[in-house]
Specification:
This protein has 234 residues and is mostly helical. Helix content is 73%, strand content 0%. It starts with a helix and ends with a helix.
């Protein structure tokens, strides 16, 4: 294919570019990072290994206050009875923490390094732009091209040396011509977005499902306790 044909093909790709669907913009690694790298999430990671020894200890009810069992003293006999007993409430808590722990372990293992190392896309660009090399940019471009070729094609028009068929010396010389650093910023931003929104999508959905179910199970004891409180004070 001649250079003119290649440019024409690139222009067609750009014209056919479409905005990303909401699931890519909303359901992504950055969203999971909010909980996945928090201290509570780190604590839940121990649940699959030692959680059962802690939560099912014979004296745990004393420390948890019976998960609302003290309300039995205030409730009138035959009224405002608990929907579920202590052992079932404890099962909900354990299963909820277990799902959160498994989801967090999966997040820590599969999440792209760019997402784990930076708080957001701006932080990633600021921390990387001064140290990125031509070799790094070519590697990032290859990742972008494999997952969002319509974005990668615009970079080739601006910097043909990003393709690996060009020599590394040509790439280094081309990078030195990027005096304002705009090309580096654009590649870094696109690379972060690709890692965030187009990497291991099925794992993102898996973790999201485990987090949703985990929080749902944890909310059950609190919801039932709240209804009993409203019953008693009402």
């Amino acid at each position: 294919m001649s250079s003119g044909d290649q440019v024409g093909a690139n222009l067609v790709q750009i014209n056919n570019w479409k905005a990303e669907a909401w699931r890519f913009r909303v359901l992504n690694w950055h969203m999971l990072r909010g909980f996945g790298q928090s201290i509570p999430a780190a604590i839940t990671m121990s649940t699959p290994f030692v959680g059962y020894m802690i939560l099912y200890h014979e004296k745990i009810e004393n420390y948890l206050g019976g998960l609302g069992g003290l309300l039995d003293i205030q409730a009138q006999p035959g009224q405002c009875l608990p929907w579920i007993d202590f052992s079932m409430r404890l099962n909900f808590v354990y299963c909820g923490l277990l799902l959160l722990g498994i989801g967090t372990i999966a997040y820590r293992f599969f999440s792209p390094e760019a997402i784990k190392d930076a708080r957001n896309i701006t932080d990633y660009v600021v921390s990387s732009v001064d140290n990125v090399s031509a070799r790094n940019l070519r590697s990032m471009y290859a990742t972008i091209h494999s997952r969002r070729p319509e974005i990668a094609s615009s970079f080739i028009q601006r910097a043909p040396w990003l393709e690996r068929k060009k020599s590394l010396k040509a790439a280094s010389d081309g990078l030195r011509q990027d005096t304002d650093g705009q090309l580096r910023v654009d590649v870094l931003r696109s690379f972060y977005s690709v890692q965030d929104r187009h990497t291991l999508r099925y794992v993102v959905y898996f973790i999201l499902l485990f987090y949703a179910l985990g929080f749902l199970l944890l909310s059950v004891p609190g919801f039932t306790f709240t209804t009993r409180v409203l019953c008693v004070v009402g």
